[in-house]
Write a structure and sequence with these properties.
Chain lengths: 652, 166
């Protein structure tokens, strides 16, 4: 019964979304205030319908309702409650419901917080969001019903893939979708602006926080996925340039460009057309990611539903939304001419360079990701594009990007003095060069890690130099504290996010110096790696809640001192008859000791041991980036003066 | 700075960005495209030495043995077959959880002078009924499996089955 209610709520949500798409858009076109006023209540009603559907799905998983085929395929009664819930969105159908739920939440937020927006703009944005929601709800209802019944119901479910039973992955999809769907809102704003034929600072003030929030969540989502791959897959790596990873990186790159160009729109009323285009592309990339993951056209570690009908449906949606928006863009964009004029050497110029490089990297990643598919279709060639391609093609673009990242914030708007900016950064440059040489001295001839540490120092100290410069810590030290408190949070957020990228680079460079060893040890035997002695004590059986395992005990010694005891496992899950490898990791924030148990032979076991310097800094850096984004979001001008089109006319 | 001049600058920059991205992509493609080959492809035409490619097929039943490599590392040796031919593969590493005899596998590595394949990566998907598309394609090309007639036959038969129709 609950299942049918959920299904009905989805259908109701689809109808409401259609109404939400059509009525406000017509209203905005005809300047009919009554039709426009329908936008917010319809968005609220749609949110309630989708939330009920999602609640029904969660309920089905929580009580393990085996008459629902989705539960049978992805859940099991003997599973911790958290993983019953995460099982609800750990599969194709459920994750699509989560997707539309987040979209409905965004629609509700625009309806709720956007009362100060000009009513026509708000109606159009909500209408476009309704159009997107209607398409995806149609997709769910016609191709991927999450409430499909099975009869007779089996005794119990088949269980969730054990490698997905993990806290990191339980929150990976919601984070990622918050990012993907956040770009639906910037897309809606872009299309609404094209329909209105105007983009101004108030528009930029609305688009920037949305793109910032989407980008921050996407950063966290990607970081969670990468962290999960690092500790759960047991390959010792953190990024594999897998097509699906790339599919999440593409909207991240375009979104980072969007978030910077939106600043120019807001502050200088320039780059308007470009920003609108980026907003369309960012959502296009999100949809492309959705398509790539769910259609099975690409070979990847993500084994989602490989149903061609679904792929065709999503491809049709992708085409309709992006092609429609781009056609509208071609028709209307020339009207949106910018007003701010700037010299090439200025803050604006720096942000244009940032956009150019980020988009070039995105283009390279896009080509590398899609090329195997096209080569197969066009020439029947079975090829793949791996990490060496992406490293070789993106690194030369990343170097100028990093170089400009510390310099850009030092430049003044309109017309800047490059020599002055460089003068204020000389000590940062000296520290960067010093860290490169220090790396070469300590670790030997490793060019990329040395460059990575130089980039890290350049970005972290560059962010510090930016803040010190803004609070005039050297010129008027007595007032520095007051100035620091008065500095807008957006300035702090930007500097912190840039420093976060630096921390991540330090982690990447550290991983460039990682060492590993593959050894077959018998109990009592030891091997040496990275200055530590790793001794296999024993391998024994252990029993978990829904698995049994072979667990190795490895003592890591530094001289006579025991550093840690690592216990890697090979788990066997009787439900689903699957094996998983559980890596054992010991971290002290400066390095990870990482052990994986391979097969057993001759009374001993094969062990893969890794020493990963600075590995945690990769994800730590991503968290700092997201924090910087969050801090920037809490800026006064976002909270107070976002709707400044009306505020500008009202007395202050 | 006039509007025209600024537009020129931006166009120039965009051209530079696009141009360098294209150049980078093409050069990186030239060195780093990884081709997929089935055992039959290798028998027909020897792949260039020192160039990594992906070898895929089914792990021949009963062929997996554990050994110690020349450098003292524990290795796993097995044979990858597409029905018509089989290639010996050696891999120094921990085999993935879903590696099973008789299931589809894709390996990345290079040919050794003795005609065997040294894998640096072994990929098996997170789904035990999954058949990598390249492997399915290779099996079809070798004429040993028509997917329309159901699941792939058990691999124990792959090398011993009499060839139908030559």
């Amino acid at each position: 019964m609950i299942g049918e209610l959920g299904h009905f709520a989805l259908a109701l949500g689809c109808i409401l979304a259609l109404a939400q798409a059509i009525l406000p858009l017509i209203g905005a076109h005809r300047r009919d205030a009554r039709l426009m006023a329908l936008a917010s209540p319809l968005a609220g009603a749609q949110l309630i319908a989708i939330a009920s559907a999602f609640g029904a799905l969660l309920w089905a998983f929580a009580v393990n309702d085996t008459t629902v085929s989705n539960v049978v395929l992805n859940s099991h009664s003997q599973k911790p409650l958290l993983y019953k819930f995460s099982g609800a969105w750990g599969n194709h159908e459920g994750s699509m419901v989560l997707w539309v739920l987040i979209l409905a939440l965004c629609g509700g937020a625009v309806a709720g917080f956007g009362r100060d927006l000009p009513s026509a703009l708000q109606a159009r944005v909500i209408g476009i969001l309704g159009l997107i929601a209607a398409g995806f709800l149609g997709f769910i209802i016609f191709t991927s019903n999450p409430f499909e019944r099975v009869w007779p119901p089996p005794m119990d479910g088949q269980g969730l893939n054990p490698i997905l039973q993990d806290p990191g992955l339980a929150f990976h999809p919601p984070m990622l979708y918050l990012g993907y769907v956040g770009y639906a809102v910037t897309f809606a704003f872009a299309v609404a602006a094209l329909l209105e034929g105007r983009v101004d600072a108030a528009w930029g003030r609305w688009v920037r926080p949305w793109s910032l929030a989407a980008w921050s969540f996407l950063t966290l989502g990607i970081a969670l996925g990468s962290w999960w791959a690092y500790y759960e897959l047991g390959w010792g790596g953190y990024w594999f340039w897998d097509p699906v990873e790339n599919a999440s990186l593409l909207p991240w790159l375009i979104g980072a460009a969007l978030l910077h160009s939106a600043i120019v729109v807001e502050k200088r009323e320039s780059l308007k057309i470009w920003t609108v285009l980026l907003a369309i592309l960012a959502f296009g990339m999100s949809l492309l990611g959705t398509f790539l993951v769910r259609s099975g056209v690409l070979n990847s570690v993500h084994a989602f539903a490989n149903d061609p009908a679904r792929g065709v449906f999503i491809l049709a949606l992708l085409m309709a939304y992006v092609a429609g928006a781009l056609a509208l863009f071609a028709w209307r964009a020339p009207k949106l001419g910018g007003t701010g004029i700037f010299a090439p050497l200025s803050r604006e110029g720096g942000l244009v360079l940032n956009n150019l490089l980020l988009c070039s990297i995105a283009a390279v990643v896009l080509v590398g990701t899609l090329w195997p598919m096209f080569a197969d279709i066009l020439f029947g060639a079975k090829i793949s594009v791996g990490a060496p391609f992406f490293n070789a093609a993106t690194a030369p673009l990343a170097i100028p990007l990093v170089a400009a990242m510390a310099l850009g914030p030092m430049l003044a708007w309109k017309r800047a003095d490059l020599a002055g900016a460089l003068q204020r950064l000389w000590w940062v440059g000296a520290l960067a060069v010093a860290s490169a040489f220090l790396t070469l001295l300590v670790a030997g001839y490793h060019v990329w890690p040395a460059l990575g540490f130089a980039a890290a120092a350049w970005l972290i100290f560059g962010a510090a130099a930016d803040i010190l410069d803004r609070i005039a810590a050297f010129r008027r030290p007595s007032q520095a504290w007051n100035r620091a408190r008065g500095l807008p949070r957006a300035a702090w957020g930007g500097a912190i996010a840039h420093a976060g990228v630096g921390v991540m680079f330090a982690g990447l460079a550290g991983m460039g110096l990682a060492t590993d060893a593959l050894v077959a040890l018998k109990p009592g035997e030891a091997t040496r790696l990275a200055g530590y002695e790793w001794r296999l004590e024993r391998i024994r059986d252990v029993q978990g809640p829904n698995w049994s395992a072979r667990r190795a005990t490895v003592t890591v010694l530094d001289g006579a001192r025991v550093v840690t005891v690592l216990e890697p496992e090979k788990r066997f899950f009787p439900v689903g008859r699957m094996n998983t490898t559980e890596a054992a990791i010991h971290t002290n924030a400066l390095r990870d000791l990482y052990a994986v148990l391979g097969d057993e032979r001759d009374g001993g076991g094969v062990l893969r041991l890794h020493h990963n310097p600075l590995a945690p800094w990769i994800w730590f850096g991503a968290v700092i980036m997201a924090l910087g984004g969050g801090l920037s979001l809490s800026d006064r001008r976002v909270r107070v003066s976002a709707p400044s089109r009306k505020a500008a006319t009202a007395p202050a | 700075m006039t509007r025209k001049k600024r537009r020129l600058y931006i166009l120039l920059l965009c051209g530079l960005g696009l141009g360098s991205a294209t150049a980078l992509t093409l050069t990186a493609f030239q060195d780093n495209l990884v081709f997929f080959r089935s055992p039959s492809d290798i028998m027909r035409e020897a792949p260039p030495a020192n160039r990594a490619f992906r070898l895929g097929g089914l792990v021949e039943a009963g062929s997996l043995e554990r050994a110690t490599g020349a450098d003292g590392k524990p290795t796993a040796n097995f044979r990858v077959t597409d029905g018509a031919h089989a290639i010996r593969v050696s891999y120094a590493g921990v085999l993935p959880d879903l590696f099973r005899e008789g299931q589809g596998v894709v390996t990345l590595g290079t040919m050794l002078p003795d005609g065997s394949f040294r894998a640096s990566e072994v990929l098996a998907r997170h789904d035990e009924t999954y058949m990598p598309p390249e492997v399915a394609d290779a099996l079809k090309r070798a004429g040993h499996w028509n997917p329309a007639q159901g699941a792939a036959p058990p691999p124990a038969e792959w090398n011993t089955a009499p060839r139908r129709g030559g």
